[in-house]
Design a protein that fits this description.
With 210 residues, the chain is mainly α. 76% of the residues lie in helices and 0% in strands.
Length: 210
């Protein structure tokens, strides 16, 4: 009779399950975009105004889709770095996926109430929680190379941590901007993507110099 170990759940199975959750989360986002219901007599005069009024919904959809894509890339890189998993890491991953699968709700809430500060802050806090749990996973796996190879360059782990810190910083900075002008705060979050690109370029140069 074989002895039970935590390794009965392999990294490949964890990756497959996680990818499925990410795929469902990004798919659910599009259901928040509702086609305007207009009577046939008013379609010609009201359709363009109704669609333009949905701009916050479109912005939230694009932003949320891209953020989930970023979280997927972070998660993919992390699982490529770990050489084994244990029960603690497994449950951290489950909580991470729970928060990722929850993203369509705050996205729908803000898309429905784009002029309410509470809906925006709720959205921001939801995203920060995703980043926070990912940092917990990264810290747990990398601490004394608990779940990673000792041959892994420290710069790689630092790179992932730095991107999480910058993401959380941008989210937090968006809150005081929202107090002044809510619409600007939403578009401000898009600066994350050029920041991530610049960070990747910077750490790539460091890695090549070593």
């Amino acid at each position: 009779m074989s002895k039970f170990t935590d390794e009965t759940i392999t990294i490949s199975r964890l990756t497959s399950f996680s990818d499925g959750v990410f795929a469902i989360a990004v798919t659910l986002l599009v259901f928040n975009l509702k086609v305007p219901q207009i009577s046939a007599a008013d379609v010609h005069t009201l359709l363009s105004d109704k669609v333009l009024a949905m701009l916050p919904n479109f912005a939230t959809y694009i932003l949320s889709f891209l953020l989930i894509a970023v979280y997927w890339t972070f998660h993919h890189r992390l699982l490529n770095l770990v050489t084994k998993i244990d029960n603690q890491f497994l449950w951290m991953n489950i909580w991470f996926l729970l928060l990722v699968s929850f993203i369509p709700f705050p996205a729908a809430l803000y898309g429905s109430y784009p002029h309410e500060l509470f809906s925006f802050i709720f959205y921001i806090v939801s995203m920060i929680l995703v980043n926070g749990v990912f940092m917990l996973m990264l810290g747990y796996a990398s601490y004394k190379y608990r779940l990673m190879s000792k041959e892994l360059p420290l710069a790689t782990v630092k790179y992932l941590f730095f991107r999480q810190f910058t993401t959380i910083f941008v989210f937090l900075l968006a809150i005081p901007i929202a107090l002044y002008q809510l619409r600007w705060a939403v578009y401000f979050i898009f600066v994350l993507f050029p920041i991530h690109w610049a960070t990747k370029k910077y750490y790539k140069k460091i890695a090549q110099a070593l």
